[in-house]
Design goal:
- There is one protein chain.
- It contains six helices and two strands, in the order αααααββα.
- By secondary structure, the protein is mainly alpha-helical.
- The protein has two domains: about 90 residues, Arc Repressor Mutant, subunit A; about 50 residues.
- The chain has a two-stranded antiparallel sheet.
- The longest helix has 12 residues.
């Protein structure tokens, strides 16, 4: 296992990913990931202890965050930090809701995130299909 893989495993465990999720994301055996985590203090117990120490800090910039009692704990100090963190950590996003659909307007296949009832790849495709303008499947358009 390389140093880069070890750092990635440590990062993924610290954000709460399971051994199985990490193994799938990094194309490793689940038992390899579990053994590495157990030997290097990355078990669930160790992670919860680390989280409790970092509970009042922004995940992106580590600034102190004021937590309001009886409310959901904040993870970020601002929207700017939240957007920056998610742009940097796109691999942590749950990608189970991605559907491949064939566009009714141009016939091209496209990926729809979270909406399996979508019919068109773009607004221009919808407008052209609605008002009778036909496009070919090899038509170049920004999706």
């Amino acid at each position: 296992m390389t140093d880069i893989q070890k750092q990635k495993i440590k990062h993924l465990r610290s954000v709460g990913k399971s051994y199985k999720d990490i193994a799938i994301a990094m194309n490793l055996n689940e038992s390899t990931v579990k053994t590495y985590c157990n030997r290097n203090g990355l078990t669930d117990k160790d992670i919860s202890l680390m989280r409790s120490k970092q509970k009042n800090k922004c995940l992106y910039c580590s600034a102190e965050i004021h937590q309001v009692p009886k409310q959901k704990p904040k993870k970020f100090c601002s929207d700017k930090c939240r957007f920056a963190w998610w742009n940097k950590n796109r691999d942590l996003k749950n990608k189970k809701a991605v559907y491949t659909i064939k566009c009714r307007g141009c016939g091209k296949e496209f990926a729809s995130y979270g909406n399996k009832k979508r019919k068109y790849c773009s607004h221009s495709c919808y407008v052209s299909a609605r008002f009778g303008i036909k496009h070919s499947a090899d038509d170049k358009r920004a999706i």
